[in-house]
Specification:
mainly alpha, 14 helices, single chain
């Protein structure tokens, strides 16, 4: 019953957002804009996207102390991206299963994913803050707020990294918070702290930290490059890099929305917001949203599909494990 409700809710959210985006735009004009897209730039985008998967697999393998070979690491990441388009984030479950089959301890695989998410979140915050300061006609208050957001992101990550090096101090801070604000004990702050501290342990090794940061920068350079190629494919030249940066960062937030079918709707809405911020016309930014989402999923299908075959992924086991993990998630405490 729960899965059915999630599925129905996802379809409703995706449909509602698509209807909102297309409410005043002739669909035939969007189709015409898509047909005029440059195949050369689309091809460049696909190449960069595949290369970006390789960069992300290098980051992940480093966090696993290279327990997985380069070929398997690349295809596991590709399969992860492909299956993450399905309900219950099945891709992350598949990644854990495939890593375990290759001798990677479950805790090591889990902590590597935590590190990836925190580093990616930091990059999204920094890139978004930088992009907002460049928006045409942006108010000074917005620019100052964006700069503050970027600084806050760096400070927050630095504090978490300090806590990872000094977990006893982190526990002392949480105990003080609970002492002065006892009502917060109703929230799972202890489990969140433990999970984050455990997840950041790989970064307490400075060699691993440098490796992870380097490949994070390379990975996001690929993401920006792929998006820039699609912006150029649509014939957009003015504010092209700014549009690419806004699109990538906002789309990153959109795919985190749990209720949607393969992020259809939220993804296009994110690109629409980015287009609006740089004063792009509606037809162009809607077409860009559909093109970007389509090419992104296509790259996952092409490479992830090959990975499914090469790695011998049993989808039945993945979905069974995903459903089990969903059922085992702790329920929030009631007041």
């Amino acid at each position: 019953m729960r899965r059915m409700l999630v599925l129905v809710g996802s379809i409703v959210v995706s449909a509602a957002l698509l209807l909102w985006i297309l409410r005043d735009v002739p669909i035939e004009e969007v189709g015409a804009a898509l047909r005029q897209a440059s195949l050369l730039w689309i091809g460049i985008c696909l190449l960069i996207s595949v290369s970006g998967m390789w960069a992300r697999s290098n980051r992940w393998r480093g966090l696993l102390q290279n327990r997985i070979n380069a070929r398997d690491g690349f295809f596991i990441i590709a399969v992860t991206f492909l299956l993450n388009q399905l309900p219950l984030r099945a891709g992350e479950v598949a990644r854990s299963l495939l890593a375990a089959q290759r001798g990677v301890p479950v805790m090591t695989a889990a902590t590597s994913i935590v590190v990836e998410r925190l580093l990616d979140l930091l990059m999204v915050v920094l890139l978004l803050a930088a992009a907002i300061t460049q928006i045409p006609d942006a108010q000074p208050e917005i620019i100052q707020g964006a700069a503050f957001l970027g600084v806050l992101g760096l400070i927050g990550f630095s504090v978490l990294l300090f806590f990872a090096h000094r977990p006893n101090f982190a526990q002392m801070v949480l105990d003080l918070v609970h002492r002065f604000l006892p009502f917060l004990k109703r929230l799972p702050l202890q489990s969140i702290l433990d999970h984050v501290i455990d997840g950041l342990q790989p970064l307490t090794n400075w060699g691993t930290f440098a490796h992870a940061v380097f490949w994070t920068l390379v990975s996001w350079a690929h993401s920006l490059g792929a998006m820039y190629a699609l912006v150029r494919a649509m014939g957009i030249q003015e504010n092209a890099l700014l549009l690419a940066t806004l699109s990538v960062t906002l789309a990153s937030f959109s795919v985190a929305i749990p209720l949607s079918v393969a992020a259809i709707g939220p993804f296009e809405a994110a690109i629409a917001v980015a287009g609006t911020l740089v004063n792009l016309n509606e037809v162009t930014y809607i077409a860009l949203g559909f093109l970007t989402h389509g090419i992104t999923v296509l790259s996952y299908i092409l490479v992830g599909g090959v990975g499914l075959v090469i790695l011998g992924v049993a989808l039945g086991d993945v979905f069974k494990r995903a459903q089990t993990e969903e059922q085992e998630k702790p329920k929030p405490e009631m007041a």
